[in-house]
Amino acid sequence: MNASTATEDGDGFRAGLARGELQVACCTACGTVLDYSQRVCPACGSPDIGWRKASGKAKLRCVVEMSVSYTLERPAPYLIASVELEEGPHLLAPYKNGVMESADAGQPVVAHFEAGGLCFRPVAS
Ligand SMILES: [Zn+2]
Asked: How much distance in Å is there from the Cα of 122 to the middle of ligand 1?
């Protein structure tokens, strides 16, 4: 398995984001992909959790329009997508290049990185 351990990376998700990579947590004993908050493998009970690069492919679950600016870098209104990664975990991230009216549940989306960090956009058809 090509996974780094949690103890080497601390928070592999955030370390990956800093490198421009989307990482998922995985069990180093059996390879099961875990949700971000899980620290014990639900399949084999191992507490040895590592991180590996995700494909970046996902399915859109829903999109919400945020009408409040929480940071100066992201003024309202902006869109947030809830996605299901190809590997299984769910994730919230900004949604780009799309309008809410054309965002359908189940449509394929892909992760990409820009100056503001991770976001998802529709897969070009
Ligand atoms: Zn396991």
From this structure: 32
Q: For residue 121, how far is its CA from the centre of ligand 1 (angstroms)?
A: 31
Task: Please check whether residues 23 and 73 belong to one and the same domain.
Answer: no
pTM: 0.84
Interval between CA 112 and ligand 1 midpoint (Å):
29
What domain range includes position 63?
57-122
- Region 42-52: what's the mean pLDDT? 96
Q: How far is the CA of 47 from the centre of ligand 1 (A)?
A: 8
Q: Are residues 40 and 66 in the same domain?
A: no
What SS3 class is residue 100?
Answer: helix
Checking if the pLDDT of 38 tops 70, the result is yes
